């Protein structure tokens, strides 16, 4: 039975799930949903997901949304081993900590910085919000110190979520030059993460959308 995946390529959370699916070898039945045209409000989609958000994944009679638990589900159910989402309690806690950091701090602060100009009519970016974003990037840079990937030497779903976010920031002209560990990690991801090219295409499309919305 095909696994349906409702998504929009420019969405970093959608791309995180796509990276995990690529890593475990699951072929998704891609169903693009243009939220800017209100397609998420169609009755048939709301029946699947009453929160009408993307990404949404449908695997048989199981429907899940929110990207990070979706990545966990795919890795746990379809991974050939536990390397993407470790069974070891400490290692899995580290993966989840970084996923929550991405959701609640890194991606959140990025949104606080760019979304008011993109969607709320503000004319200038707030320097205080940029400082908070750079603080979060500094924390991530510290987390990556001494590691090849986000959690040790193996690619995990934390790399998928963080890569989708950070690659998008880069295309939005967020300065990463002070974060040497992040830049080195991005190069490792480029070389070793399956599906990197598709993620990069989505990030570049997001960057074009960002610049058009902000008249850059």
Automatic annotation (TrEMBL):
**Any idea what this protein is called?**
GST
Please name the GO terms of the biological process aspect recorded for this protein, alphabetically: glutathione metabolic process
- Residue span(s) of domain GST N-terminal: 1-82
Q: Which Gene3D superfamilies match?
A: 1.20.1050.10, Glutaredoxin
The UniProt entry, under PANTHER family, shows: GLUTATHIONE S TRANSFERASE D10, ISOFORM A-RELATED
| Keywords, sorted A to Z | Mitochondrion
Query: Tell me, how does this one assemble?
Result: Homodimer.
Q: What GO MF terms are annotated?
A: glutathione transferase activity
Q: Point out the gene that encodes the protein.
A: GST
Membrane spanning residue stretches:
none
């Amino acid at each position: 039975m095909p696994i349906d995946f409702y998504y929009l390529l420019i969405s970093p959370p959608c791309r995180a799930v796509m990276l995990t699916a690529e890593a475990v070898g699951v072929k998704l039945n891609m169903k693009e949903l243009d939220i800017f045209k209100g397609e998420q409000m169609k009755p048939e989609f709301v029946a699947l997901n009453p929160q009408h958000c993307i990404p949404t994944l449908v695997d048989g009679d199981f429907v899940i949304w929110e990207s990070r638990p979706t990545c966990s589900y795919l890795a746990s159910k379809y991974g050939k081993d536990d390397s993407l989402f470790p069974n070891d309690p400490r290692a899995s806690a580290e993966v989840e900590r970084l996923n929550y950091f991405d959701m609640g701090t890194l991606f959140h602060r990025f949104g606080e910085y760019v979304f008011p100009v993109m969607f709320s009519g503000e004319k200038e970016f707030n320097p205080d919000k940029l400082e908070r974003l750079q603080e979060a990037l500094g924390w991530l840079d510290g987390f990556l110190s001494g590691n090849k990937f986000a959690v040790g030497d193996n690619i995990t779903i934390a790399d998928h979520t963080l890569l989708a976010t950070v690659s998008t920031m880069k295309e939005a002209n967020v300065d990463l030059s002070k974060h040497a560990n992040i830049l080195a990690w991005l190069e490792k991801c480029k070389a070793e993460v399956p599906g990197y090219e598709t993620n990069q295409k989505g990030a570049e499309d997001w960057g074009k959308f960002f610049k058009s919305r902000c008249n850059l």
